[in-house]
Inverse folding.
């Protein structure tokens, strides 16, 4: 199972501890997480289920390439970080 | 008489209360978070707060008492593959909620009904106290919507929602930039009602097109609902016939540029504005913060400055940053530089509550 880690800034708004989830793509892994935490979905994805414009996802050290359908592959021991693409303030 | 003021700021929601004749901060909610708007629903006593977390999107919260609970935010429907949907500048419209830009209750006989205006231009309605929202498709699917444009924001913004006190099925909304639109059947059909407004900054052939007008804020007099006031990008406009036509109000010293407007609840000829130099220089004229007031429907204006900073003041008051209470005696406004002022005599005298608050998006008197 892949390990999913959410930014601490997000944990301030929604309960989202580190978690393990199954899936062959980033979409499948995140959907497995959201299945148990529907409110979290709206903080990470936009209304079209694409990654929010100012969010970033890193899979095993590489930034997500397919921000629209989240089709980047995920391995059984992958680590997925869901982060803010920091833009000042 | 309202003794409570909700102040929505970049770093939290501040509740200001009047006790024994003095106003002070009584409560802070969402400290550190960007609160953009509030709404108090007199039909059930609940309060709504709109937040925009930037990275994490725009959210809505509701409090029945002191405890806030996140509720559903309006969500745009799935964008069909291959759909061409561009704004007036020719840019692809994003089908996603970017900001909650207006929030109002339906009529007294419509408990639980809320209207919500958003960026990028969708109007939403909830019939269940915000537990769920529906996009008002009759307006979204109107082909004229594709002529709307962003003004100060990148995308079209519905900033004003006026539910007619005579009949709650009649609703008027203000759009920057999309003019004023009216429904008389509860949202089934809509018509653009900005005849008479003009935009000198547009090419001549478009400057009087009602559908590209840039009202910054539209308000309606509760006791004389045929009277509406608009602070427009181009100046001040007034309607005497429930938005069927608009006339410009000129000769408004020191300036007719601004964002906010308030109308007296019982005196339709009395309205207040907070002017800036003009669109390309958004700060008070000569660094002197003033409020302008007309009592004769815009024929003459007074410049009110007692109690307001008159040297090196660079406060801008956004479109939701000026509020009037139900008596018409108390006004409050908050600025982009964290200044907050209250008047208890219709603007003759102002008291500064703070000049160290975070940037203020909106103020609202509540009961």
């Amino acid at each position: 199972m892949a390990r999913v880690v959410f930014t601490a800034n997000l944990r301030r708004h929604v309960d989202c501890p580190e978690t393990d989830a199954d899936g062959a793509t980033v979409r499948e892994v995140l959907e497995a997480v959201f299945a148990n935490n529907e409110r979290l979905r709206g903080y990470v994805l936009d209304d079209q289920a694409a990654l929010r414009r100012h969010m970033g996802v890193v899979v095993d050290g590489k930034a997500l390439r397919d921000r629209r359908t989240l089709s980047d592959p995920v391995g059984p021991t992958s680590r997925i970080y869901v982060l803010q693409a920091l833009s000042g303030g | 008489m309202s003794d409570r003021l909700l102040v929505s700021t970049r770093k939290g929601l501040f509740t200001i209360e009047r006790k024994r004749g003095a106003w002070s901060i009584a409560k802070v909610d969402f400290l550190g978070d960007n609160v953009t708007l509030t709404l108090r629903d007199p039909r059930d006593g609940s309060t709504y707060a709109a937040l925009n977390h930037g990275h994490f999107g725009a959210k809505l919260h509701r409090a029945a008492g002191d405890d806030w609970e996140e509720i559903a935010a309006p969500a745009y429907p799935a964008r069909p593959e291959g759909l061409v949907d561009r704004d007036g500048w020719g840019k692809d419209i994003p089908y996603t909620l970017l900001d909650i830009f207006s929030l109002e209750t339906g009529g007294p006989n419509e408990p639980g009904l809320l209207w919500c205006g958003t960026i990028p231009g969708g109007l939403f309605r909830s019939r269940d106290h915000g537990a769920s929202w529906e996009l008002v498709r009759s307006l979204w699917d109107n082909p004229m919507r594709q002529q709307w444009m962003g003004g100060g924001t990148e995308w079209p913004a519905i900033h004003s929602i006026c539910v007619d006190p005579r009949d709650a099925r009649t609703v008027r909304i203000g759009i920057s930039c999309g003019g004023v639109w009216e429904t008389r059947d509860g949202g089934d059909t809509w018509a653009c009602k900005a005849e008479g407004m003009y935009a000198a900054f547009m090419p001549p052939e478009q400057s009087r097109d009602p559908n590209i007008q840039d009202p910054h804020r539209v308000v309606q007099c509760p006791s004389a609902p045929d009277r509406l006031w608009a602070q427009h990008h181009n100046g001040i406009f007034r309607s005497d016939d429930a938005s069927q036509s608009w006339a410009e109000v000129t000769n408004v010293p020191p300036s007719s540029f601004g964002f906010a407007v308030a109308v007296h609840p019982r005196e339709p000829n009395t309205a207040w504005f907070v002017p800036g130099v003009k669109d390309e220089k958004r700060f008070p004229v000569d660094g002197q913060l003033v409020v302008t007031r007309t009592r004769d429907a815009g024929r003459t204006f007074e410049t009110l400055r007692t109690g307001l900073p008159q040297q090196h003041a660079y406060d801008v008051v956004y479109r939701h940053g000026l509020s009037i209470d139900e008596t018409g005696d108390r006004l409050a406004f908050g600025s982009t530089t964290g200044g907050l002022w209250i008047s208890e005599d219709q603007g003759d005298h102002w008291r500064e509550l703070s000049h160290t608050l975070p940037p203020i998006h909106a103020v609202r008197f509540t009961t």
